[in-house]
Design goal:
With about 140 residues, this protein is mostly helical. It is built from five helices and no strands. The longest helix is centred in the first third of the chain and has 20 residues.
Length: about 140
Amino acid sequence: MKVPKNLGMRQTTVIVSLFLLAFAFVISNCDTGVQTVASGEELFLSYCAICHGTDGTGGGPMTEHLKLPPADLTKIAARRAGNFNADQVYQIIDGRVPVAGHGTGDMPIWGNTLKESEKLKNEKQVRQSIDNLVEYLRSIQQ
């Protein structure tokens, strides 16, 4: 930025300060494309706890309105001989590809739901959100 030579020091300081302030405002309001994806626990409490309960055992407030009781998500590995298959859990949560034996389809298709409700911009962010949920579920296994 070139400042005219006939300005005094104080005027120059004011002009430079205003320029820097305007620049900072523009930069702070730019969409950099970087969006933080919520943690698995945050997503679980926001979307899953209503059916599966805040502790994941299946006792959420919607339970009485469901045809089948929601699964106890703290026992995923126990129901599979101690194996927590992250890929299978991912597919069940995502829901866009039907998983044989998953049940009645009462659970929402979270891949689409997360993209819209979390305002995710691309498939990579959807994947990260579901991965975060999967890792949270892995952490609550008993």
